């Protein structure tokens, strides 16, 4: 019998993974934890998990959206894991995939993965709508502008003073002075 391995993921570093898989009753041999978006391709703990697991092991994941954010990634990850004889259990959905050629299991996976992908796109759409409304109300300013040091130095070389550079770039004079005095 193989090992029970956990994969935990939260989207930001200030979130914690304590609620994920805490009530499963399994004693995990190893726990892999990522603190990054599921949409990103580079997830160090997931990559380490894939290297670590062997035939007969079971990977436990809280829910499908913790493993992948879109159907293609989900199918690819499951194919890679189950193709190596590793089972994957999603506790929230109460589903286990073990690579058996089971049409119903494949259908379930595709439907659930498509729903998760749709849900994620709806969240992003609501976020865009919320930002647009906040902008209309003057409550959303967006991210702070970044100032390119090379651009400031080039403008100074053209004969512009700190006030003119600041006005041109839409930033404070102090920001321009900081850049000019740092180099």
From TrEMBL:
The active site is at 11 (o-(5'-phospho-dna)-serine intermediate). One of its GO terms (molecular function) is DNA strand exchange activity. SUPFAM superfamilies: Homeodomain-like, Resolvase-like. Residues 3-138 form the Resolvase/invertase-type recombinase catalytic domain. InterPro entries: Homeodomain-like_sf, Recombinase_CS, Resolv_N, Resolvase-like_N_sf, Resolvase_HTH_dom, SSR_resolvase. Keywords: DNA integration, DNA recombination, DNA-binding. Belongs to the site-specific recombinase resolvase family. This is DNA invertase Pin-like site-specific DNA recombinase. The lineage of its organism: Bacteria, Pseudomonadati, Pseudomonadota, Alphaproteobacteria, Rhodospirillales.
């Amino acid at each position: 019998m193989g090992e029970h391995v956990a994969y935990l993921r939260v989207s930001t570093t200030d979130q914690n993974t304590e609620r994920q898989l805490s009530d499963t009753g399994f004693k995990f041999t190893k726990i892999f934890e990522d603190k990054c978006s599921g949409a990103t391709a580079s997830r160090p703990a997931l990559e380490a998990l894939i290297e670590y697991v062997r035939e007969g092991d079971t990977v436990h994941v809280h829910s499908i959206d913790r493993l992948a954010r879109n159907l293609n990634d989900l199918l690819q990850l499951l194919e890679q894991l189950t193709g190596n004889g590793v089972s994957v259990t999603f506790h929230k959905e109460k589903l286990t995939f073990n690579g058996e050629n089971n049409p119903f299991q494949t259908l379930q996976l595709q439907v659930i993965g498509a729903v998760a992908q749709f849900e994620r796109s709806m969240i992003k759409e609501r976020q865009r709508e919320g930002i647009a409304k906040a902008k209309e109300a003057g409550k959303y300013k967006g991210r702070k502008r970044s100032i390119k040091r090379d651009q400031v130095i080039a403008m100074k070389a053209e004969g512009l003073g700190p006030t003119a550079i600041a006005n041109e770039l839409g930033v404070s004079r102090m920001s321009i002075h900081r850049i000019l005095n740092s180099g």
